[in-house]
Design a protein that fits this description.
heterotrimer, A alpha/beta (257), B mainly alpha (312), C mainly alpha (288), A: 257 residues, alpha/beta, Rossmann fold, 6-stranded mixed sheet, 4-stranded antiparallel sheet, 37% helix, B: 312 residues, mainly alpha, MetI-like fold, two-stranded antiparallel ribbon, 13 helices, 2 strands
Chain lengths: 257, 312, 288
């Protein structure tokens, strides 16, 4: 891949459509995501937000069987291209899922799973990765004494922070989050949002959320999707206080959803 | 890109394994039908189902063996189903989870005991007892039924327990909440709901009984005759194949294969029916999520059964 | 009131419950004791003969004396051959069907075929093995014929249980593995298979148990010749333990030896199943 461009967008979507079978769930989306921004996708259920997100790390194609057209550029290189190595892409674009999904092993094992696949073998390197990732996800203090206990023994909020730490351990460039706080208590949600804010300079964050207030709290730019179409996107402040499209203001103010 | 090429190689290797397995499965099926089929057509299905089994004279009627298999199978079910169902009810509805987790696998282990051991016990315990107390030679339909009945118990018990446990808890809770006793709940609510699964258990038990060879050879007598009493000696389809295969040649051997085809088809039909029955139970069990949505339909069902004049 | 109505009957629901309980518990106790009796009966009479000499010596005098060493070895080799052939085939097929193909008519057909063949009586496999391996391919009564027949016999079971086990691994685990940078094969080996391992092992152990207990299929493929030394080649005929037991039982040669052989068989099955259970529990705790 070419050297990352400091001035250009981190992720650039050009005329991207996603379809399962005949009807597209995402239609001709074009937008740019600047580096080190927190970018939120909002919209009611069925608007294609998750499909779009999963297309960005190619899960849509491999697991869901979707057909994706258009270009998804990561640092100027189309990840939908023919001879792209999916595993490399996924290490650059880590994903956190809606329900916490720890692997059925110890906390330590969960964290080193990705790095080991990437070739990191030495135990002191792995140990350090584990510690820094857990600290970044604001989980270190709570689990540092029981790294080898099962990840399934953690609470829901802790598990989700573990999943974020696991993604951070990959040392990605972009972190994709699919409704990461749905079903979590407010304190866990707050901790996750704090983590995102404090790590802004290290990663680019793309978050799909059903919670418009969360998007308003946390993101720098917001895109509003409705039934597969991009209605509007722009700086969060503007989209929330002064939206250009009436449907945007209707959704944000809860007139439908 | 090493992971990618490794992936492609692995996928191809697994495809080869899968095709080989499928090939083997097809080979077995085709082989048996090919060896036995022609004879069926040559001799004619009517003759093949006739009563005269005289291989030396080219007579291949398996009716006596079919009668033998039927007799011991029916007998086995008469013993195995009531006992098995009762045990299943106790284990599924009336014991603690802890007891069940010990006893259920223990009973399933018994299914793994070699059939020849069961047959042996028939020889040293059952046959002398029958000879002394009921007459006859001892080796008989009765002996075969008892031993086979014991052998199908683990199957019937295991699958019946599964069927009973598959009945949603809400059914039981609804019934108890309306004042039914535990036995009334079992009889009126749980058993009917689990009916298809229990039928599947019985059918699979039947399949096991029909397919059993060694144990029946050891205790059922092996005479080629249609039984007229439980003390008569009989030969099952499976026993016939096993006893004559060693020295059969030509048409005789083909006839044994043809018997194999018949067995194959019977077992296949039994298995397919059992699967259908299990599917029915799964589909008929609709679980309504929140308790508040347990509609009057649920309550109506148990209310109707309680109001049943027979119940109170 | 319903309770008033109830008292008009002779058999109240409460008495009905009591009667039902008594009947059910009695039947259960009877059944359990009957099943237990079988094991105790055999083991009690056979255990005295289960000596070290019995396990390590060759048979003598047609089986009336001596031990069962050649039979033990024969059983082990034939069973091992069957499992070694059937497991890669079956497991590979199961992995391919669940991980590399989409659910469709083909996969359903294969699954149906495997389920059907898993229920086919062993005598039919004996027929099949006899005509194909012993006669047509010219192996004669041999370990090879027996092992191949056993392999074919347990293949459907392994395919079915492995496929169920792999299918029951949550899709989420696969997605997590992929999104952490694993290739498809890596996700299968590092995440799916370890989680499916208890189920897969169960299928294999079931296959081993079935092979050891198997008599009908083995008599007609590996033969029943009584030999005084352990087999040395794959083409040697061999008498497995269960076949030996059958001969002892049927010909009434020696009751004592029969009981002891039966004891070995029963204990082997019990030990195998208990081990399987223990392994499964331990694995389940680690990987689920």
């Amino acid at each position: 891949m070419s050297a990352p461009s400091v001035l250009g967008p981190k992720v650039d979507l050009r005329d991207v459509s996603v379809r399962y079978g005949r009807d597209p769930v995402v239609r001709n989306i074009t937008l740019s995501i600047p580096p080190h921004f927190i970018y939120a996708f909002i919209g009611p259920a069925g608007s294609g937000k998750t499909s779009l997100l999963r297309a960005m790390n190619l899960l849509s194609i491999e697991v869901d069987g979707a057909a994706v057209t258009g270009e998804i550029m990561l640092d100027g290189v189309d990840i939908l291209g023919a001879d792209v190595d999916r595993t490399v892409i996924r290490r650059k674009m880590g994903m956190v899922f809606a329900t916490p999904q720890p692997l059925p092993r110890s906390i330590y094992e969960n964290l080193v799973f990705g790095p080991r696949l990437a070739g990191v073998r030495k135990s002191d390197e792995l140990d350090e990765l584990v510690e820094t990732s857990l600290q970044a996800a604001q989980l270190w203090d709570e689990v540092k004494d029981r790294l080898h206990s099962s990840a399934l023994s953690l609470s829901g909020g802790q598990q989700q922070r573990l999943c974020i730490a696991r993604t951070i351990a990959l040392q990605p460039e972009v972190i994709l989050l699919d409704e990461p706080c749905s079903g979590l208590d407010p304190i866990s949600t707050l901790k996750i949002e704090e983590a995102m804010d404090s790590l802004r300079s290290r990663f680019t964050w793309i978050i799909v959320t059903n919670n418009t207030k969360q998007a308003a709290r946390v993101s720098d730019r917001t895109a509003f999707l409705l039934l597969g179409d991009l209605i509007e996107d722009g700086p969060t402040d503007r989209v929330f206080t002064n939206p250009t499209d009436p449907r945007t203001s209707d959704y944000i103010e809860g007139r439908f959803g | 890109m090493r992971p990618a090429t490794l992936d492609a190689l692995v996928e191809r290797g697994l495809l080869i394994l899968a095709l080989s397995s499928i090939g083997i499965l097809l080979l077995i099926t085709v082989f048996i039908f090919r060896e036995g089929g022609p004879l069926l057509f040559r001799v004619g299905i009517g003759n093949f189902l006739g009563t005269s089994w005289q291989p030396a004279e080219g007579q291949f009627g398996i009716a006596t063996m079919v009668a033998g298999s039927a007799a011991v199978t029916v007998g086995a079910l008469l013993l195995g189903v009531p006992l098995g169902l009762a045990c299943a009810i106790v284990l599924a509805e009336m014991v603690s989870i802890r007891t069940r987790t010990i006893l259920k696998p223990a009973i399933e282990v018994l299914a793994g005991i070699p059939s020849v051991v069961y047959g042996f016990i028939g020889i040293v315990v059952l046959i002398p007892w029958i000879r002394q107390n009921l007459g006859g030679a001892g080796a008989s339909v009765l002996a075969g039924s008892i031993i086979l009945g014991i052998m199908v118990l683990p199957t019937v018990i295991g699958i019946s327990i599964d069927a009973l446990q598959a009945v949603p808890k809400s059914y039981r809770e609804g019934s108890i909440a309306l004042g039914a006793t535990r036995w009334q709940t079992i009889r009126r609510v749980v058993l009917p709901a689990a009916r298809s699964g229990i039928v599947a258990a019985v059918i699979l038990g039947m399949g096991r009984a029909v397919g059993e060879t060694m144990a029946v050879i050891m205790v059922a007598g092996n005479s080629v005759q249609i039984p007229h009493s439980p003390l008569d000696s009989v030969r099952t389809l499976t026993a016939n194949i096993a006893l004559e295969m060693g020295y059969a040649a030509g048409d005789h051997r083909s006839a044994l294969f043809a018997t194999g085809v018949v067995l194959f088809v019977i077992i296949m039909a039994l298995n397919a029916t059992a699967n259908l029955a299990r599917g029915w139970q799964r589909r008929r069990t609709v679980i309504r999520p929140p308790i508040s949505q347990a509609t009057s339909a649920d309550l109506g069902k148990t209310t109707r059964t309680i109001r049943d004049p027979e119940a109170c | 009131m319903l309770s008033d109505m109830a008292s008009f009957r002779v058999i109240t629901p409460r008495r009905e419950q009591a009667i039902a309980d008594v009947i059910l518990w009695t039947v259960m106790a009877f059944t359990l004791s009957m099943l237990l009796f079988i094991i105790v009966f055999v083991v009690q009479r056979g255990l005295p003969g289960l000596t070290w000499e019995y396990l390590t010596q060759a048979p003598a005098d047609g089986g009336r004396a001596g031990g069962v060493f050649p039979m033990l070895i024969g059983t082990l080799i034939v069973t091992a051959l069957g499992v070694v052939i059937a497991t890669p085939l079956g497991l590979g097929t199961a992995i391919y069907l669940t991980e590399y193909t989409r659910e469709g008519r083909l996969t359903r057909l294969i699954r149906f075929g495997a389920e059907c063949l898993a229920g086919v009586p062993s005598i039919i496999f004996g027929l099949f093995g006899f005509v194909l391996f012993v006669i047509a391919l010219g192996f004669g009564w041999s370990i090879l014929a027996g092992g191949l027949t056993l392999a074919f016999m347990i293949l459907p079971t392994i395919i079915r249980t492995s496929e169920e086990a792999i299918r029951s691994v949550p899709t989420a685990y696969r997605e997590v593995a992929l999104s952490l940078g694993a290739s498809k094969w890596q996700s299968v080996v590092r995440v799916v298979l370890p989680s499916a391992l208890p189920g897969i092992l169960t299928g294999i152990i079931l296959g081993v148990g079935r092979s050891i207990s198997e008599t009908a299929a083995v008599i007609f493929t590996a033969g029943s010749s009584l030999s005084h030394r352990a087999p040395t080649s794959l083409f040697d005929g061999v008498r497995t333990l269960s076949v030996h037991f059958y001969q002892l039982a049927r010909e009434g040669i020696s009751d004592q030896k029969a009981y002891t052989t039966a004891t070995v068989l029963v204990l082997a099955i019990l030990i195998i199943n208990v081990t399987a259970y223990v392994i499964m529990n331990r694995l389940m705790r680690r990987y689920r």
